[in-house]
Amino acid sequence: MEGFTEITNFPLKQKQKNMKKHFLLITSILFLPLFLYGQSNRIVGIWLTEEGTSQVEIYKGSDGKYHGKIVWLDEPYENGKPKIDDENPDPKLAKRPIMGLSLVKNFKYSSKKKQWVDGVIYDPDNGKTYDCYAWFENGNFNTLYLKGYVMGIRMLGRSTVWKRERKRS
How many domains does the chain have? Predict the structure, then answer.
């Protein structure tokens, strides 16, 4: 009798296995976007620039892209007045304040490359804007690597490293 019971329960056990597989597949499909969303937002936060003289806040814009603006300067004033973007070749832009200035723009997260790509970075020290991408290394999400480059050639550029920290006042 026992052998007969095992044979009749076989289709039921197979159905249970199939249901478990389907459940795991559906659960994975549902949670994958949440995982990728979490990965892409790792760049959001306050970053101390390599020189240690400014902080940049990176945020996700309403356009779904990542942007960053200067939120703290070690020396916000020059000759008693707020520092301005005086190295910018455009006379109108050369009068804008450095504080609040958009430094990085338009990054999109590439889950394939595990990088934020297609962005630009502005260098207020020389008034130039460069194509840029950013990434983390070795699972360290408190050190952000950025590389600005020219003419679409990643080899023609320079890198900088920013450190995550709390906003200074």
Answer: 2
Q: What is the pLDDT of residues 73-112, one digit of tens each?
A: 999 999 999 999 999 999 999 999 999 999 999 999 999 9
Do both 14 and 60 map to the same domain?
no
Tell whether 169 is covered by a domain.
Answer: no
* Per-residue pLDDT at 4: 53
Structure confidence at residue 30 (pLDDT): 43
Please give the residue range of the domain that contains residue 49.
44-164
In eight-state DSSP terms, residue 74 is S
Cβ neighbours of 66 (radius 10 Å): 22
DSSP 96: S
CA distance 144 to 104: 13
Query: Does residue 86 sit in the same domain as residue 13?
Result: no
Q: Are residues 38 and 52 in the same domain?
A: no
In angstroms, rounded to a whole number, what is the distance separating the alpha carbons of residues 152 and 115? 16
Task: Tell me whether residue 158 is exposed, middle or buried, using C-beta atoms within 10 angstroms of its C-beta: 0 to 12, 13 to 18, 19 or more.
Answer: exposed
